[in-house]
Amino acid sequence: MIEIAGVIKRFGANTVLDGIDLRIAPGEVVSILGASGSGKSTLIRCINGLEKLDGGAISVDGHRVDDPNGLRQARRSCGTVFQLFNLYPHMTALQNITLAPIEVLKVPRRQAEEEARELLAAVGLLERADAWPAQLSGGQRQRVGICRALAMKPRYLLLDEVTSALDPEMTAEVLAILGKLARSGTTMLFVTHEIEFARHISNRIVFLDGGRLLADLPAAHFFAQDGGMAQPRIAQFLSRMSKS
């Protein structure tokens, strides 16, 4: 379980996360919604230790991320996919996927490559295993990024606006893969502006506003008129997103 308790994060005088309490259990798909600047991506970066906390605590399966040993264990449990791919340009798709399993998990190279090819096949990219990132479309690079995260066999998949840099066709490609993962039982914490996608794949919807957790509701209740929609700020956000 990912446990977030009273988390505070500041950048200078700006409080980006203000007392966030949240739990994500294995098997859940939790989407984080909110306007730009509400703290969504910062929360993901705090979970994987890329940002230090100014207050509160985060633990992953009991391992605290503010402890160096705990952070190493937490990172082994969490695979992260970022919005800008972050593939190594001097490595092929296959090499990008196998690097961490070989270096961190000490998986034999042959086994790592076999498992990487299985992942690429699952996302329809087996024939692109030896392609360089520059030879791949944005949607293909993002799918390789997802494979790279899954190659570490994480218990939790953290996804930070993974479609924000993609055009509509490429976005559809990536969302199809994520939908398949969600249906297979992969635990996902998904920061997104894809409202309809979040509605259909999520067990729960978390809504952040100005760094505060305004709602944490079952997906159906979040979108109901007597649920999340009853809160003016959420209704305003969803109305604006539906027009964008």
Automatic annotation (TrEMBL):
GO terms for molecular function: ATP binding. It is a peripheral membrane protein. Keywords: Amino-acid transport, ATP-binding, Cell membrane, Membrane, Nucleotide-binding, Transport. Residues 2-235 form the ABC transporter domain. InterPro entries: AAA+_ATPase, ABC_ATPase_HisP-typ, ABC_transporter-like_ATP-bd, ABC_transporter-like_CS, MetN_ABC_transporter-like, P-loop_NTPase. Gene3D superfamilies: P-loop containing nucleotide triphosphate hydrolases. PANTHER family: AMINO ACID IMPORT ATP-BINDING PROTEIN, GLUTAMATE_ASPARTATE IMPORT ATP-BINDING PROTEIN GLTL. Belongs to the ABC transporter superfamily. This is Amino acid ABC transporter ATP-binding protein. It comes from Massilia agri.
